[in-house]
Amino acid sequence: MIKRVLILLFLVIVLTLISYGKEKTETVVNVNINNLYQLDISHLNITTKNISKYFASDEIVKIYPYVNPIYINVVGKMEYEIDGSLDQSIERFKNNYLKKLRDNGYTSDYETMVIEGIRLESIEIFTNKNRINILIDKYKIKIKWDIVILID
After folding, report:
1. CB 21 within 8 A of CB 141
2. Of 56, 97, 118, 131, which one has the greatest count of Cβ atoms within 10 A?
3. What was the pLDDT predicted at 8?
């Protein structure tokens, strides 16, 4: 009888220890869910001169200019990553792009772009779903692709 009581007591203690070991603890982590989106903005008249009217400077990751098919072999399909300040990055991009046009004899396009800015075809931005919905509703922007990124 004592043997059965000791075994039963031992089982109760073991099961109690196991249940405490399995007790769930939840850690609350403040996570912002932002996505990286590539947006088709070709139907809008967004250029290097007016881009900040549409997008916050801290949202922009890359810009993709419209490249005229006539000189795509000279300039190539371009993309430009925003590094540091938006204004400085845009200025470096414009200088590079316009230099290629000027050096290859496309002076009329060069002069137009100096005055009006370089037209943008698409853009990559890092933002949340609410901001994207606002942009879609306001400007009828189309999403080319998106990637979910979690940040703590």
Report:
1. no
2. 118
3. 66
Structure tokens at 49: 């001169």
Report the C-alpha gap between 89 and 60 in whole angstroms.
11
List, for residues 24-46, the tens digit of each pLDDT value: 544 444 445 788 999 999 999 99
- Reduced to 3 states (helix: H, G, I; strand: E, B; else coil), residue 45 is coil
Which residue ranges make up each domain of the chain? Answer: 32-151
63: part of which helix (H) or strand (E)?
strand 60-65
Tokens found for residue 44: 């809008």
Nearest 5°: the CA angle 123, 127, 151 is: 130
Residue 55 structure tokens: 């997008």
Mean pLDDT of the chain, nearest integer: 83
- Rounded CA separation 34/36 (Å): 7
Cα(26)–Cα(24) distance, integer angstroms:
6
- Provide the Cα torsion 110, 116, 118, 122; round to 10°: -150
List Cβ neighbours of 47 (8 Å cut-off, separation of 6 or more). Answer: 116, 117, 118, 119, 120
